[in-house]
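Listing S7. Sequence submitted for prediction.
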Amino acid sequence: MKLLLPIDASQHTADAVDYLKRLRPALAGTPQVLCLHVTYDLPATNELTVAEQARKVLREDDMDFGPERIVADLNQAGFQATLQVAEGDAVEQIIRYGDQSDLIVMGSHARGTLTQAVTGSVSTKVLAEGRTPVLLVK
């Protein structure tokens, strides 16, 4: 089974990771998890590509649930996890990578109805526009 886990520096991502780890015994074989971090507006230099710059920034982050730690944590829990950094619109990138997955697992920011009506949410847009099943974790 191929899972896509969009990640950011939020507690919602940590909640989704915790849920996946609890779900692991019910999954056959060794599920593959692609941890996708989408970034935007990072200027590329001659020496580093945008993705390489993003990985450098992410590795320097000291959060308890930083991307490298998420991958290691999932691998230790019996998944085959990898990290992918992509540039662009989060919804478009999640749908693009989701098309190559069996399931998208996302943490939900659970914004209020008014905020969601005005700005929309990434998860709502992925649900509406994507073709891959989505599991939202609150």
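Caption to Listing S7: primary sequence and predicted structure tokens for the chain studied. The beta strands are 2-6, 32-39, 80-87, 103-107, 134-137. The radius of gyration is 15 Å.
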